[in-house]
Amino acid sequence: MKSRKQPLAQEEQPLSSTSSSPCTPRSLDTRHVLQQQIQQFAIALPVVATWVVYSDPAQGKRQSIVHYTPKPGFSYPDLTDLESEEWLFESLPTLTLREVLTLDSSLRAFGCLLDLYHSQAEYLLLWTDAPLSEQQQRWAEQQAQFLMNYLVISRECSRQHTEIQLLEQVVRRAEHQLRNPLALISLYAENLTLGSPTGPMKDQAQLIGETVHELSSSLTDLLSCGQQAKLHFAPHDLGSILQESIKGLQPWLEKKQVKIICDESPASLAVDRWQMKQVFDNLLSNAVYFSPQAGTVTCNWMVFRDEVLVKVSDQGAGLSEEDLKQAFTPFYTRRPGGTGLGLAIAKKIILDHKGSLWVQNLSSGGAQFSFSLPR
Hints:
This protein is of the alpha+beta class and 375 residues long. It folds into two domains: 3-160, Beta-Lactamase, CATH 3.30.450; 232-374, Histidine kinase-like ATPase, C-terminal domain (Heat Shock Protein 90). The chain has helices spanning 25-44, 87-90, 134-195, 200-224, 238-256, 273-290, 321-326, 342-352, and strands at residues 3-4, 11-12, 47-56, 61-68, 76-77, 98-104, 107-117, 120-128, 233-237, 259-262, 268-272, 296-303, 307-313, 356-361, 367-374. A hairpin with a 4-residue loop joins strand 3 (47-56) and strand 4 (61-68). Helix 1 packs antiparallel against helix 3 (134-195). The protein starts with a strand and ends with a strand. The relative contact order is 0.08.
């Protein structure tokens, strides 16, 4: 084990590469939080060096952060020598501090496995020049829990950010596929309007033109969904938005004799009304489609202090294992003639509202789509 005379107050070393590369803002935020946290070890414990190793999906590689506690004349361990010794940490119990190495009688190393992310160990290493009491070890394990929780949350945020980018690409692709047919329909509708005498045919041609114009406007609004600068947040009651969606489905509901049972309790929160209606439109139409004739669709919610939980359930056959995995994947659909975009767009809108959307099968039969929104 090499030693070094001059410590660095903070040192950052990527494990997988020595070349520098620009970090995303989210990566920089993660590093900053971890740097601030590991400095606390130098304040609370007799450590001479603290090392955290973790995986950064945004960068696509492993990262490490080192903090040396300044002690004049002290010889510090060169922690990069341990890059090939990760097996020491993989065998440790998760979030449990254990002594893993002893350099000499005055310097010890305590390791703590944070997580096994894609079979690679994420860990905390503390070099101390004095024994750690049981209370100090418990404190270190509590801090390790915080580090692990933050890494999990950071990765989830990174995953959702990637999903949003993918769905934005999907929406843009859909726009290109729809603009030309809409323009062609609009042109023919205009020609029919100009060439038809006053009467039912002319009225129908005008109605087609107006409908195309509405579809084009809706498509423009759809392209803006997910762009925070274009979201129009205002307090709205979910019940009124839900009733608006049900009204648009009424002819279909009457044809299938499907009944929608709604929650009548108030649930007001700040959302983009038009986008939230798209969520209800997509979830309800999906539930109605897979409902049996004369079936029932249920939509209810629970209001908590910090969030609202909404559930949309049907009495259909439920989803297969593959459906559960692919339900929100763009262009995946089990509906003949479906685009496979409805659920993907619904999830994008919920993510843009800082919420979550998921699906599960009910033990009583049918599927249930649930989403949560912050209050």
